[in-house]
Amino acid sequence: MNTFKAFVIVLVLISFKGFACLNGDTKVLKNGVEIYYDEHELIPVGHTFNVENFSKLIQDLEDEYKKTNDIDYLSDKGYVLIISGKYQEALKLYLEIEKIKPNRYSTASNLGTLYELMGENQKAYEWIKKSIQINPESHKGSEWLHLRILETKVTKIENITGQFFINESFGEDAIPKTKLSKKELEDLEKALYYQLNERITFIKPKDKVISILLFELGNIAIINKDYLSASQIYELSKKYGFQEELINKRTILCYEKWVNYYSSKAEELEMQKGGSFRLEGYQIDAVVISLIVVSLLFLSLLIYCIILFRKLKKANIST
Question: What is the rounded CA–CA span in Å between residue 315 and residue 273?
Fold first, then answer.
């Protein structure tokens, strides 16, 4: 019965964990269109784009550029062409922008991304390197990792490891360890999340580089004692092709931590004495099940409100 209680409590807390993730990153184009809103801030799942009519959006950006001569509209048009899969059109446009207004960070960065998506890794490396020279703090200071990823593609390094990418090893034990400071670990976590979230948007499983970087991000989550996020990131890493046995050991560690923690909490609740809040075992089960029902109803209502809000917003944009 205790194991059942712990399992049910985990389910309830997972539901509430979903609410905590509703504060991610947003990209708004020059014309005010919100093109994506990322609901996750710990687990990289890629961008979910809000736009239904890309052709109309591209035309709107082109029209605004003609009215204002503001190069930002053209740059955003190129971005929309990229996410629409129109790589050749986007490439032609960004090369034109570079001639009109050289040395813009967004041009260099987007050209680097474009060339990588098109498999021209040497050119991608050169443009990303240039973008870092223009603005080292861009993309939340994570472009050094993008450059390191491109290094492996240009030089065709075999048997790459996480240590090559991040210059840090978390060891071979079931519990990852680090000598990095709290600030250094936080900066590394942000860089991994940002670069992974961008790549997962365009690259589907399987991919060796993504699988390795996800594994390292999961290791940081364990060090931060975020076992729920760690287990989800490890599962995503395996989906992308990570096969080393160490990931299974650390995934099991996460599950054990869940069960031990929530089992102990359930025991504390049952053993509590002298207070007004004293429940028998069957009463705790009833309370927990009720919490599940309430949390699921609340989650459904929240999802409905979000969908309704986005529909209204799109309707306003189209009018």
Answer: 57
